[in-house]
Amino acid sequence: MICKICSSTSEHCFSAKVLGKYDVAYYRCSSCQFVQTEDPYWLSEAYSNVITKLDIGLVTRNEFVAPIVQAVIGKWFNSEARFIDYGGGYGMLVRMMRDRGFDYYRQDLYCENLFAESFDIMDVPPFKADVLTAFEVFEHLVDPVGELEKMLTLGNAILFSTSIQPSSDSNPESWVYFAPDTGQHIAIHSRKSLQTLADRFNLNYCWNEQNIHLYSTKPVNNQLFKLITHPRFSKWFNSVTPQRKSLLDKDFAVAQVRLKDALKQASV
User: Fold this and answer.
1) Domain count, the chain
2) pLDDT by residue (tens digit) across 198-250?
């Protein structure tokens, strides 16, 4: 099999029972160590429930990343700009960032927008975000190169999370992140595969040596990025920088108008 990241040869490394019933082969690249599954024919079934029953950390994850996003934007980007959460799920992060005063919008083709209903990119004219966030998205991508190219048409920089293989022989028995029971994690990265992707698009790549990454066209010091994205430091940094006015009241007014319009249409 050919590696989807660097086009080198990928060799069979193990097989796993996906969704509890499909014997699926996994392949590791001999060059960049990217792990991909065979053609993921089971995805329509895997995404019958987009947010899987095992994703019980969804709320905690958004609480964790919101202050980090705020700190990264505050340090290196334009807080007055617009932002996109790519693969934004229920819209929780969008709502949290708007509550913090950031003009954030959600993009997701597969999941219902529960928390940011009026603030999807489909609700506004097309724009390019100063920062696009993509948390727990990269491991889901069938076409990593094509999807990154699409992301870069929507945002100037990409702040994202994905976990990196802890060893060169990681497998579902040694590392839970493969999550074959859900069938959704089909693209598992190494440090080298993410650097290869960045090089392919001439992007600066930062990594905090945990699971937070940044692709950007502007140079960003990696040691400072590692510090800024530390949970305690990001909260401190946010506390000593000017706070933006929450968009909650403004957004409530928008929701009120939309509700009244919907009720009028329903009564006609």
Assistant:
1) 1
2) 999 999 999 999 999 999 999 999 999 999 999 999 999 999 999 999 999 99
Residue at 45 is within a domain:
no
Distance CA 111, CA 60 (A): 19
Closest CA to 133 of 182, 82, 184: 82
8 Å CB contact between 41 and 186: no
In the sheet that holds 187-188, the strands lie side by side as 10-18, 22-29, 35-37, 187-188
Please report, for the domain that includes residue 70, its CATH number: 3.40.50
Q: For the whole model, what pTM was predicted?
A: 0.94
Give whole-number Cα distances, 186 to 2, 129, 254, in Å: 15, 27, 39
Residue type, 222: N
Using DSSP bridges, classify how beta strands 157-161 and 131-135 pair: parallel, antiparallel or unpaired: parallel
Helix segments in the chain, DSSP class H: 43-46, 58-76, 92-99, 144-154, 191-200, 222-228, 231-239, 248-267
Alpha carbon dihedral 238, 244, 250, 252, in 10-degree steps, equals: 10
